[in-house]
């Protein structure tokens, strides 16, 4: 089934994992996070490693180890998390990425640009601290 908006599984894992980590008073393993979000422990671990590369989380090895917050939750927006996983979001005006439209009027009535702007604004407005 086709979807108008599609957020990747990796981005979704990142959002959920970050909220679980910021809410926890002790490090959380990739396995514990995977169990909580009903995901693959391997995919969760890969996503957490990407988040560690941008210094949002860090980890401790061992039986009591796991991932914990390295950055302050008030400094991390959902846009930051999304872009850590997917790369920088580009403002899109045309789905076909054409500089000039063939028609006098956009057949999409500029909805692509509006949806992109609204999505980016929403992600910017959601701070990790708001989910504690």
Quick summary of this structure?
This protein has 132 residues and is mainly alpha-helical. It contains five helices and two strands. Helix content is 45%, strand content 6%.
Structure overview:
- Strands 1-2 form a two-stranded antiparallel ribbon.
- The relative contact order is 0.17.
- It is elongated and about 65 Å long.
- The chain contains five helices and two strands, in the order H-H-H-E-E-H-H.
- It starts with 8 loop residues before the first helix and ends in a 7-residue tail after the last helix.
- Strand 1 and strand 2 (66-69) form a beta hairpin.
- It has helices at 9-23, 30-37, 41-53, 78-86, 111-125; strands spanning 57-60, 66-69.
- By secondary structure, it is mainly alpha-helical.
- It has one domain (9-131): Arc Repressor Mutant, subunit A, CATH 1.10.10.
Q: How are the strands of the largest sheet arranged?
A: 1-2
Number of strands: 2
Series of secondary-structure elements, N-terminal to C-terminal? HHHEEHH
Distance between the termini: 34 Å
Q: In percent, how helical is the residue content?
A: 40-55%
Radius of gyration: 18 Å
> Which CATH top level class fits?
Mainly Alpha
Helix segment count?
A: 5
Indicate how many domains the architecture comprises. 1
Instruction: Tell me what portion of residues adopts beta-strand conformation.
Output: 5-15%
Task: Supply the CATH superfamily name.
Answer: Winged helix-like DNA-binding domain superfamily/Winged helix DNA-binding domain
